[in-house]
Signal transducer and activator of transcription
Amino acid sequence: MSQWSQVQQLEIKFLEQVDQFYDDNFPMEIRHLLAQWIEGQDWEAASNNEAMATILLQNLLIQVDEQLDRVSQEKNLLLIHNLKRIRKLLQGKYHGNPMHIAVIISNCLREERRILAAASMPVQGPLEKSLQNSVVSERQRNVEHKVSAIKNSAQMTDQDVKYLEDLQEEFDFRYKTIQSLEQNDKNSALIKQEMLALQAMLNTLDYKRKEVLSKIGRVIHEIDMLMSNMLTEELLDWKRRQQIACIGGPLHGGLDQLQNCFTLLAESLFQVRRQLEKLDELLTRLTYDGDPIPLQRPQLLEKVNFLLYNLFRNSFVVERQPCMPTHPQRPMVLKTLIQFTVKLRLLIKLPELNYQIRVKATIDNSVLHSNRRFVLCGTHVKAMNMDESANGSLSVEFRHLQPKEMKSSAGSKGNEGPHMVTEELHSISFETQVCLYGLTINLETSSLPVVMISNVSQLPNAWASIIWYNLSTNDPQNLSFFNNPPAATLSQLLEVLSWQFSSYVGRGLNSEQLNMLAEKLMGQQVSYNDYQLSWAKFCKEHLPGKSFTFWVWLEAILDLIKKHILPLWIDGYVMGFVSKEKERILLKDKTPGTFLLRFSESNLGGITFTWVDQLENGDVTFHSVEPYNKGRLSALPFADILRDYKVIMADNVPENPLKYLYPDIPKDKAFGKHYSCQPNEVSKPSDGGGKGYVPSVFIPVSKILNDSTDPHSPSDLLPMSPSVYAVLREHLSPTVIETAVCCKLFHS
């Protein structure tokens, strides 16, 4: 079943999450119509390779054209119209930047996998639950409602100012008229009547001035309250959601909504500023004793300018955190002399600012207790514009920055251990200046803390540091965090570990798998809901009796899945995280030949399988092969190993003991689609091979030793074709075959 088919079967609450990340950047119609083709392409690789991305974009447009031809024959007018619009949209947006659509599609597929993994969990994790709090959603709606109300109030006040201007013009006219009449007859009844009318008009004018100033004051107060409370909380929540998304959590949305709120508030403040300028203009033409304009206008204008300064400063955000294109699922880990990308946005989207704001990027080297210093190479000054972003936001993306370590006379490179390097936090700082309508505002912002590495071998521990930091704190700039790293709640850490699997290898962990990881971290029979785990136990201390840490063990498993058993993992056929004790409990009552797949606890990046068997006396026995590592799996696909695996029992008769994948799935039903070729497709000896050779394949063969005193030697793979092996069984004695087989099996 395709991934998209699985998505369509989700509950409505999960479908609503899917709906949030499909928009004009990548329309859902295309995802639906081209589901199989889209899932068959390597979008992640294309997001780092412009040539590959260009080809994929061209092929995508060809696929859309083929769909257009199909629906044209069906005379589906609505779908024809939508597909033509979408094709034009895709070509226009991504023709000059094909890698951008590769990033978007890769992120969408990744988020689908995360949601599918979340849907399979019995309960929602604590972190994800907090991000989807109904109180937060209600506040979002309240912010949008209040911003709209403020915009309407500011526009209504415009009408009041216009009425005040008209009223003052009428007063000026009548006043000048009376002045001309006074020269002829100052004591006439007409003059006295006009003076009384003029005084009444002045009283009305004074009342309207006070009323306008009061309305302006209320608008300013409402903006102040909104910015100080709900809008600030919304921005902080978005930044927290971004932190969680960076370590594999749900994709963070809401920035476009925040941009809309910030922009409307800025427009309202500038509108109020123009109203105050108009009042100043009216003041120069008419003033009087007790005039409210000179008394109130300066304070109101000062408050408006103060709010504009704060609004602009808060609107300058890092939209996409620093990330090496070669490691899209490991953001904030930067390798020296390797390019990384980072994107910034100004949430106040005003046409007057297009190409007017130049942003400068630097590295913050104010790290305590470190002699390492870095500079940025590449284009580190760029102008913000509305043309490069697919959604038309006012943003700038740095794509060619490289960190370079400066030589230090203190010789810090040689004095710092691997953990010191990967626990050392830096940040990328950005500064710019906005000049608009007589205001000059200096803006600064910084990325989340990054880890600088000089060798790719440091990447796993560096990523562990990024996980721990963003899990444990919402402080965006605590560069001394690892001087005294806090403990993390184990329940939240396990949720984040599941995200590592859903984002990196397409399928998260279920509760049983997470329980096994909890036991590995804490020991058995301990409730871990409120358990606090230290940083050292997670990443620095070796596991009991092992020469590696928990994180190194887990990272090796992720690498194994990604490179060698990914389809089997995504299908859910690898139980993986199960202890030897639990394994035997699960298998003991099953049909002989039932097996399961689990990751080795003693070998880094190893996978093994264990099956249950029954002795003649009725006793149950278990057999586990020595773990297969990436070296052996590079030579032979794991699915083929399961298909062709043979054991030689005591009577020297080779057979495949693997019949049913736990709990009762026939082996070929589970793994058949992943076999590289079917046994009957292998050439027979009489067929001949290239240059007269018989084609050969590797067949894994083991011998069960009943004598437990015999040493366990590494399993070998015997190179021969299935047909040749059958011929050997017919013409060679079991003793000869036994001599040729040196692969032995762990017996328990």
